[in-house]
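// run 5 | inverse folding | seed 20
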């Protein structure tokens, strides 16, 4: 489901609330969600009504449920709402630096990429996120916690070289001709 995300992402809790509503055995009430997410009931009620207005949630006898297990937003580069959401999401991760190591993991990788490789990697990262949802997504709350994953692909340097690479034979400039022996 593709949705206009501005209302939902107005709070970093919007997607968290929607995820909790997918748990069929959890009986999600506004008070229960507010307690679990350490938030005010009024903020959670506001988010629940946004989810309902976006046709992502329904309520019956005070119990909220998701109408769909997942949703997708448009990738709008430069979208201020999404930027704000991701800033808040990263701040949440930073606040958890001192959490017990058994409850959190941090990974970092540095790669040199050209523009095409960067786009290819971004596509792979998005695909991997959907694979995580498929593999680990569940509608059960038994022995579970709500986890957040932040993946960032950002340049940490300017372009390293504007020169086109020189053509170097395979094996480098000191390669031996066939049949020659190295001392």
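// decoded
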């Amino acid at each position: 489901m593709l949705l206009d995300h501005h209302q939902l992402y107005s709070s970093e809790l919007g997607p968290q609330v929607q995820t909790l509503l997918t748990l069929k055995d959890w009986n999600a009430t506004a008070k229960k969600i507010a307690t679990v997410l350490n938030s005010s009931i009024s903020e959670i009620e506001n988010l629940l009504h946004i989810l309902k207005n976006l046709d992502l949630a329904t309520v019956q006898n005070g119990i909220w449920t998701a109408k769909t297990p997942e949703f997708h937003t448009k990738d709008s580069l430069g979208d201020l709402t999404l930027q704000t959401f991701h800033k808040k999401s990263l701040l949440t991760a930073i606040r958890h630096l001192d959490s017990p190591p058994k409850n959190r993991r941090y990974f970092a990788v540095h790669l040199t990429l050209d523009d095409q490789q960067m786009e290819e990697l971004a596509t792979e990262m998005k695909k991997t996120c959907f694979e995580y949802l498929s593999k680990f997504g569940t509608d059960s709350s038994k022995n579970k916690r709500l986890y957040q994953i932040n993946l960032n692909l950002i340049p940490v340097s300017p372009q390293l070289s504007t020169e086109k690479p020189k053509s170097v034979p395979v094996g480098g400039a000191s390669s031996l001709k066939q049949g020659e022996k190295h001392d």
